[in-house]
Amino acid sequence: MYDVIIIGGGPAGASAAIYTARGNMKTLVIDKAPGSGALAITHKIANYPGVEGELTGRELLEKMRNQAIAFGAEFVQTTITAVDVEDEVKSIYTADGTYQAKAVIVATGSKGRNRMLAGEEELLGRGVSTCATCDGAFYQGKTVAVIGDSEEALEEAMALTKFVDHIHFIIPRGDLQGVDEIPELDKTRYYLRTRPLEIVGDKKVEGVKVRTPEGEESVITVDGVFVFLSGSKPGTDLLVDQVPLDEEGFMIVDEYMQSPVPGVFAAGEVRKSPVKQAVVAAADGAIAAMAVDKYINKRSKVVPQYK
Questions:
Q1: I need a surface site. Which of 27, 129, 213, 257 has the fewest CB within 10 A?
Q2: Residue 222 burial by CB count (10 A; 0-12/13-18/19+): exposed, middle or buried?
Q3: Residue 60 and residue 51 in contact, taking contact as beta carbons nearer than 8 Å
């Protein structure tokens, strides 16, 4: 049993972990793909307060995580398959087991894109998915395509290898963000620098139309398509029907990052913010952490950490 589980290890989650761990709360951070968040893939940071000169987003994030670890926070890398946050004890179900806590801070950042591929929206739920752990079992022994550009896409493809017969991994770039070297993956063929143009099908997915680096167009026949391209849709899919979300999927919270569900807090790009900056996400994490302290210890007000 943890005092708090933080879902997501980006600037919001890492900052929250610094404050909760330093506040003597038993803290666990669960992060599916530490190298693929918006900050982790930023090549140059020069405007983070207190950090002189330039460094990469990954270097800054590593400093934040190490600081949280030094105060006692635990970090695990695994995929969350489901959550149950409506009860007093919050349960987080993962590929490696179940974790429980008195409070949860959701800091999963953003996913998806503002612009979908042709055919994607029409075939969503009819062969198009954005969650391998949710839908992979439906493709037992079948052929699927994974379209992605980050470590998250690689993690989801790895999950699919347990079920499918073959994966066509379509990568628009020459590499995967957050991945130093693309590994050999069982049952998988990679298509580097290949642009996905359209998801083809009438009432269900039949294939993916792509353009090769040489400019040639063709259709890859598949039974399903899993899309993991970077973008700005809040990563709140796991919270549907448990935590109030607005029409765009953002968590609804008060000034202390508290959702209407007791013990459930938000930080970073899962809430609607006027700007998207690492320092803003980190500030959200600090506020959420101190609000968790108030909630767990049944204080009448939030107590800032001065020392």
A1: 213
A2: buried
A3: yes
Question: Are the CB atoms for 15 and 286 separated by under 8 Å?
Answer: yes
For residue 299, give the DSSP letter. -
- Separation between Cα atoms, residue 198 and residue 258, nearest integer Å: 40
Write the CA distances from 139 to 166, 210, 221, 224, integer angstroms: 10, 22, 14, 8
Distance CA 156, CA 9 (A): 18
Whether domain 128-228 has CATH 3.40.50.150: no
Nearest residue to 98 (alpha-carbon basis) of 20, 235, 2: 2
Residue in the structure block whose two tokens are 């307060």: 49
Q: Measuring CA to CA, how many Å separate 237 from each of 6, 77, 89, 96, 112?
A: 16, 19, 20, 20, 11
CA dihedral 52, 180, 279, 304 (to 10 degrees): -100
pTM recorded for the entire structure? 0.69
Q: What is the dotted CATH code of the domain comprising 2-111+232-296?
A: 3.50.50.60
Rounded to the nearest 10 degrees, the angle between the axes of helix 11-22 and helix 278-296 is 40
The single residue listed with the structure tokens 């149950």 is 84
Is the separation of the CB atoms in 61 and 14 below 8 Å? Answer: yes
For 249, the token pair is 């999927």
What ranges do the domains of the chain cover? 2-111+232-296, 128-228
Largest CA-CA distance found in the chain, in angstroms, rounded? 65
Beta strand pairing call for 27-30 and 264-266: unpaired
Q: Can you tell me the distance from the alpha carbon of 98 to that of 102, in angstroms, rounded to the nearest whole number?
A: 14
Q: Could you report the per-residue pLDDT of 194-207, keeping only the tens digit for each?
A: 999 999 999 999 99
Mean pLDDT of 19-38: 91
Tell me if domain 2-111+232-296 and domain 128-228 are identical in fold: yes
Share of the chain above pLDDT 90, in %: 69
